[in-house]
Every structure is written in C-alpha cells, then in structure tokens.
Amino acid sequence: MLKLGIILTAATITVLIVEFFRARRRPFPAHGWLGLFALLGAEYLMFHGIEPAATYFSPVAWTSYILIADAAIFAISGHSRLREEPLGLMKMAALSIPLWLIFEAYNLRLANWAYVGLPQGRVERWFGYGWAFATITPGIFMTAALIDSFGWFKEDSRPLRFSRAMETTFVALGAAMLVVPLVAPRRVAAYLFAFVWLGFLFLLEPINRRLHLPSFERDLARGSRTRLYSFLAAGWVCGWLWEFWNYWARTGWVYTFPIGQHWKIFQMPAPGYLAFPVYALECFAMYVYGAWLLSPKYVAEKKYSE
What we know:
- By secondary structure, this protein is mainly alpha-helical.
- Helix content is 69%, strand content 4%.
- It has 14 helices and 4 strands.
- A two-stranded antiparallel sheet has the order 1-2. A two-stranded antiparallel ribbon has the order 3-4.
C-alpha cells in the first residue's frame, strides 16, 4: 500500500506541475523559489534527523508549499495573495488555529487520531501545534485558487436552488450530526467521525447564504460550480500531501479510529481519503462564517472567494 500511496501522490503532483506549465503566463516569482528550496532543504534535514527541521518538518513543508502555490498562481493569473493581501493571509492563518482546534476538541471524545514524536517542552510543543494548524486553511484555499487558475471547470451551468424548507432541514441535520457524537456512548462515538466531517458543512452553508456571504449554495443558485469543484479537488490534493509528508515526519499523527486499520495508505486507512474533499468544503464554510463572526462587515476576498 505504501507504493500505491507514493504512486497516487506522485500522479497528483505531476498533474499540478503539467497544468502549471500549460497555463503559466509569467516567470515564477522569487518567493516561489524560496518555498521550493525550503521544502527540499527540509526534506533533506528531516531524513537525516537534523533538528529543528526533523521535529517541525510538517509545518515547514506546508509553509513552503503555500509559498510555492501562491507563486504558481501569480505566474498564471498575475494575482498573489501574499503580495496583495499579506495581512489577510496572516489573519486566515490565525483563524485556522481555532477552527482546527474544534476538531481537536471532538477528537477528545472520538479518539480518532493521536500525535507522536512531540517535543518534550511545553512551549516547543504548543509552538509546533500552532504553526501546523495555522497552515491548514491557507493550504486548502491556496490549492483551490491554484486549481481554479487552471481553468478546468466551466463557469456557467444549470442553476440549482434549494428551498427555504430544505435549507432549514440542512441546518437541523448539521446540528444533529455535531451533537450526536458528543452524547453517544464513547464506544459508539468512535465510529461517528463522518458526522463531524459533514456536520459543519450542512449547518453553515445555508447560514452563510442567508447572511449573503460566499457559499457553495449561493454559487449553485447562480449556475456556477467552479468554486465547488476547485475545493473538492483541493481537498484531494491536500489530503495526499498531508499523508505523504506525515508518513516520514518525526513528529506527526497516527489514526486510531476502529475502521480500516489493516488497509492503510501511509498512515491513513484507505477509505479515509474520501473525507479530504468533503473537509475542504467544510473548511471553506467554517472559515467564511468564522471570518464574519470576527468582523460583521466581512467582505469576500475578491479573487479567491467571490
């Protein structure tokens, strides 16, 4: 299964590289080269056990990847979030931490994963947590923007609208999905991880639409599926990169949920890879709503969310 994981990860990366060269219109900027050299350097140091790169490899790799993806977007479209909205990117990274901590709180009940190889010192440990969690949302958003820049998906399609009653049903279903794992017996809750990965999506999508915030439901109503497909694809890409880099990292995570433990690709049981595209959609919905909560005057980022 390890060979299969390497093949699928390599195939995913190859598609991104090929599409980048097909769509590129400008030279690859300096911060992209910085990210590439940092990633290669971190790989070398990690495999040789050289600190602190060996311990902090995952956040270094993802920070490097974000630089690379942003540079690739600039080379294709002429837009760079790092250049145009550095403060906005920092805010996204900061909000990414509490958003992921919500899932960590659920994991205290579900016990679906555990971290290994953590630094002994409390400061070093929490620094690593914070840095790693801060890369999650930017990594997904940057990947979605990169895929969108390839122009794979048609902008116009048949509108799809949900009734008010259906939206209310979605909200109720999402709320139930998020409550059930907390009240079910612990031995049962361990099997309910899918509820958590879907619950926030059902709960928040109709709310975001009613608040006139960016949402997949709003896109579908006006006949656009570009963002939906871009985030689904971004979840696929990020899922393979997360698991690929985690497999060799000295500090990382292992999965402990009671399904598919004998059929793993890297550390993840194979069926778990289906959750990553869905999580990317949920990540978008949670970020949009969280950003609005922090700033009621929240306006969608032009190129990346609107």
